[in-house]
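Translate structure to sequence.
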């Protein structure tokens, strides 16, 4: 429910939300801040419309952000209506049930069926159970929601939505954390990988385009060789690149283009042989077969 309306906030923040009616001390473990309200859902108004605010002094970066105050934002109207429906009807019914069975309920927004406060592990178990019940994927930890969200916001085809800076703040970290923990350094990104594979056709076509202004060794203009031919001819003989260039050419270039390229290279080679033989013949190094007879 939260994932539809809010950036994917960590489970520790959601499970620790105190009830709006709770007026006691902060329930965060080992909190030493004076006058701390704790992570709390604050009821701003009921009429003319329900307005709720999420107040999070305790989160992953609470030490670094302590001087800036807690994370806080007003809940979207549609989500506020749903939460208030739970607070005004579902929550009291559950607390009454717990009272009748002799189990005191915790002053939290979200409670287990026995009235206890959720921790991260029990809320994650509830999440998996809910997914299976509604036909969801077999394994999708809540942390994956954060990766899905950041992956979409950082993709080239992302839809209109929240700013990266604001969404990162609501999630309790910075845009640098997006780069460090949610980008390619640690995780596979299928969208970017597929885009690269799809772009190989364009790369191959551009690689086999003729190079402008090329000439033959005799100085005569000819059909220009491709970029990959130019790279192959400029590669030092005997090098690994030279040995692999032929197989690379056969792999990348279509058969007809490859055939034309090979014929062009053979013609250049024959022309060079004829020029060298002609020069040697003129210098007397080669005797024609007619002269021998």
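Result:
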């Amino acid at each position: 429910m939260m994932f539809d309306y809010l950036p994917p906030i960590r489970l520790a923040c959601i499970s620790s939300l105190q009830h709006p009616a709770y007026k006691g001390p902060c329930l965060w473990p080992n909190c030493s801040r004076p006058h701390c309200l704790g992570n709390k859902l604050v009821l701003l108004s009921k009429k003319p419309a329900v307005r709720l605010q999420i107040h999070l002094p305790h989160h992953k970066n609470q030490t670094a952000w302590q001087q800036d105050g807690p994370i806080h934002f007003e809940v979207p109207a549609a989500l506020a209506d749903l939460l208030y429906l739970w607070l005004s009807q579902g929550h009291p019914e559950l607390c009454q049930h717990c009272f009748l069975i002799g189990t005191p309920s915790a002053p939290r927004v979200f409670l287990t069926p026995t009235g206890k406060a959720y921790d991260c592990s029990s809320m994650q178990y509830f999440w998996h159970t809910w997914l299976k019940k509604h036909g969801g994927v077999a394994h999708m930890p809540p942390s994956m929601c954060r990766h899905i969200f950041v992956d979409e916001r950082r993709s080239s085809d992302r839809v209109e939505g929240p700013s990266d800076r604001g969404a990162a703040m609501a999630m309790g970290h910075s845009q640098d954390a997006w780069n460090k923990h949610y980008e390619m350094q640690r995780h596979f990104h299928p969208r970017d990988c597929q885009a690269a594979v799809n772009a190989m056709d364009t790369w191959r076509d551009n690689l086999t385009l003729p190079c402008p202004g090329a000439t033959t060794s005799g100085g005569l203009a000819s059909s220009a060789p491709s970029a990959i031919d130019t790279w192959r001819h400029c590669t030092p003989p005997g090098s690994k690149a030279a040995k692999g260039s032929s197989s690379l050419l056969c792999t990348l270039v279509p058969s007809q283009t490859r055939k034309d390229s090979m014929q062009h290279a053979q013609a250049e080679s024959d022309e060079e042989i004829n020029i060298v033989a002609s020069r040697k013949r003129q210098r007397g190094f080669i005797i024609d077969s007619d002269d021998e007879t």
